[in-house]
Specification:
The protein is an alpha/beta fold. It is built from 25 helices and 17 strands. α18 runs antiparallel to α24.
Length: 675
């Protein structure tokens, strides 16, 4: 036995046991895979074996002591992939896909989030590598310098393939058509393991990369027929009521709707937003059952959905992977139909999520990024500029836009890991087992205060009364890895079904000249925003390929598809393949009506994917007057717009650096001490 342990095969065996055991522990401790029966638990034990045998088996083709070096390298790479998934999952409740790995331009901005997700106990995930290195140094001196019989590594790899075949067969028995029908990566990892998922993901990406080459105009006809059938005619009373009005779109980062009217330590967390819902129903309409529909792209997905009425991709972000696609986005439509100027305001790097490229495809005229703001240390935290200076410093730019304009304001402070300076915190943190959840309420309060300040400034500028203003939440802020903390917050067990209910995010809209409807309970989602805005401006959404329907229409479709294939309606919900009565929360037996809803969701998501993967909008002309967007016409540098110095003085006269304005301001260059 001692001789075997000291041999190359013994070293291989120890390494294989280490990676198998580590994978199993990670599956149990770090991932929420919803194990429901003994077979699923057995597969959890079984699925690391196939990939371990195959990958480590490759090292055995080496000669002499090189075998040990190859084993350590492959083992380390497998550990790195596993641990990267652990850190990614802690916030996203999801697994790394190849499109995510292509988003390298984002990594620099993700530093604070990544570090906050690491714990000192993670060091244990590296101990086996240290042990292997020590063992290799002690035992490799007696190893043969010859290459081992090739039959042995071949048999090991074949054994891995056999184990995988058995694994897949048992998985298909428990979940038929596993690889064909699911959008949820948790299922793939639960049944096949993290390493096999990576292979599956690579194959899927290879498949989708060929779709654009093979696509033709017949493909878009199929999609058009579907969206034409889903189309909901506008509310006649509201059609065109906001034509020619400025549009201000306000993005609430990571904002769950449960924050509205929520009290912590006896205080309202978001008193201003509460007032818009509770006291200003004559101005605002609040959709209390509005859901985000994002996936791995998070904020970028929310932008894509609301400006295109297309779903994000099941892997990665379309902003990055489909940044060169043809789009018929809301900004371009508004410009061509009614002469709108469009602008995005964002206190971070313009290349984050590839915005500086895809915005050109959307037809966005101006992109005001960090180059336009004072990014000094005291004004920046986490992902970028704090929300209060962001809104304040955006005012001169906003007033400088040619009207009518479509302005999108993207906030940042209320973003994981919810960092906040002591002087900015006006409410005490929560008291749960999660530090990030505790801070979540403090940054929400800060965002609320920033929004109130912005509304005051809009009124002072004369932009409030006659503008269409809508406020929306982009995605969840507290992932389901924090169910324990959420249970502490709400005083009840947080199940998967209850967590799905927390995917509500705010949607409030003020339509100038139209009395608000207060709180309405229609089930809506981000996919419905674009057709709603088009109809309010008097533009018929039927001309365009849109998967949503007008929220105010009598024909509005209340079936809300989540990107993972789950869904929710007023009556029903499907969460992790379990059906529920959405009024009572009781589980339901599957029936044909529920199965049909599931099929419809899967079909709709697949059609949206076809549009993006095949770049199908290049084959579609909405109407005879449509001109395809030419991205070469757009330039996002720090001299896009001239700003009147008087506007800067007006809004920043109380700025502590105001005495240096004359020195730093240059006509024709918007950059300034505060830009």
């Amino acid at each position: 036995m001692k001789n075997y342990i000291s041999s190359r095969m013994g070293f291989f065996t120890i390494a294989a046991i280490f990676i198998w055991l580590k994978s199993y522990i990670v599956y149990l401790i770090e991932f929420n895979l919803d194990i429901q029966n003994l077979l699923q638990h057995f597969l959890l034990i079984l699925n690391p074996i196939s990939s371990t045998l195959i990958f480590l088996g490759i090292a055995l083709f080496g000669r002499g002591r090189r075998v040990g070096g190859y084993i350590i390298i492959i083992h380390s790479l497998m550990t790195l992939l596993l641990y990267a998934n652990v850190v990614f999952y802690r916030f996203n409740s999801d697994f790394i896909t190849l499109p995510v790995l292509t988003q390298t331009s984002n990594f620099g901005s993700l530093g604070s989030s990544i570090i906050s997700l690491m714990t000192w106990t993670d060091i244990f995930y590296l101990l086996d590598i240290v042990i292997l290195i020590i063992l290799f140094r002690k035992s490799s001196q007696i190893w043969s310098l010859e290459r081992m019989n090739l039959k042995r590594p071949v048999m090991i790899i074949l054994a891995g393939i056999v184990v995988f075949a058995i694994n897949l067969g048992l998985a298909e028995a428990d979940r038929p058509q596993l690889l064909k029908r699911t959008f949820d990566r948790n299922y793939i990892v639960k049944y096949l393991g993290a390493y096999n998922f990576t292979i599956y993901d690579a194959i899927q990406n290879l498949k989708t990369s060929t779709e654009r080459v093979l696509a033709d105009s017949n493909d878009i006809t199929i999609v058009q027929n579907y969206t034409d059938n889903k189309y909901a005619a506008p509310n006649e009373e509201l059609f065109g009521v906001a034509k020619g009005k400025n549009i201000i779109k306000i993005h609430l980062e990571s904002f769950h709707s449960f924050l509205i009217n929520f009290e912590l330590h006896g205080e309202e967390v978001t008193p201003f937003i509460n007032s818009l819902v509770n006291e200003h129903g004559d101005e605002f309409t609040y959709f209390e059952n509005f859901f985000h529909q994002t996936e791995q792209g998070k904020t970028a997905d929310a932008e894509l959905i609301t400006d295109n009425s297309l779903y994000g991709l099941p892997q990665g972000s379309a902003f990055v992977t489909k940044g060169k696609n043809t789009y018929q986005a809301l900004p371009a439509i508004l410009k061509q139909e009614q002469g709108y100027t469009s602008a995005v305001f964002h206190g971070d790097s313009k290349s984050f999520w590839n915005r500086d490229e895809i915005y050109k495809q959307f037809g966005i005229d101006y992109f005001f990024d960090e180059a336009y703001y004072d990014m000094s240390d005291e004004q920046v935290i986490g992902y970028g500029l704090k929300d209060k200076p962001f809104f304040k410093e955006s005012m001169p730019l906003l007033e400088s836009l040619e009207e009518p304009f479509y302005a999108h304001m993207i906030t940042l402070t209320h973003h994981h890991p919810y960092l906040i300076d002591e002087e900015d915190a006006t409410i005490e943190p929560a008291e749960t087992s999660s530090r990030s959840v505790n801070r979540y309420f403090q940054t929400a309060r800060y965002l609320d205060e920033a929004l109130e300040q912005f509304f005051d400034d809009l009124k002072e500028a004369g932009l409030y009364e006659d503008s269409l203003i809508f406020i929306y939440g982009d995605h969840y802020g507290i992932s389901d890895n924090h169910l324990e903390a959420l249970s502490e917050i709400f005083g009840e067990e947080m199940t998967s079904y209850k967590y799905a209910q927390l995917q509500r995010v705010p949607f409030l809209i003020k339509i100038p000249g139209v009395e608000g409807q207060g709180t309405i309970d229609e089930f809506t989602g981000q996919i419905d925003v674009m057709p709603t805005i088009l109809h309010l401006l008097g533009i018929d959404a039927q001309d365009y390929i849109l998967f949503g329907t007008d929220m105010f229409s009598e024909g509005h479709d209340d079936l809300i598809a989540f990107r993972n294939g789950d869904f929710i309606t007023e009556d029903y919900a499907m969460i992790k393949d379990v059906f529920y009565d959405n009024r009572t929360g009781e589980e339901l037996e599957s029936n044909e009506e529920l199965k049909e809803l599931k099929r419809k969701v899967e079909h709709e998501l697949s059609l949206s994917d076809k549009v993006l993967h095949g770049d199908l909008l290049r084959f579609y002309t909405p109407n005879k007057n449509w001109e395809p967007v030419d991205p070469s016409e757009f330039f996002y540098d720090d001299k896009q717009i001239d700003v009147d110095p008087a506007l800067i003085d007006k809004w920043l006269e109380n700025d502590e650096d105001n005495e240096t304005e004359d020195e730093l301001f240059d006509v024709g260059d918007v950059r300034h001490n505060s830009f």
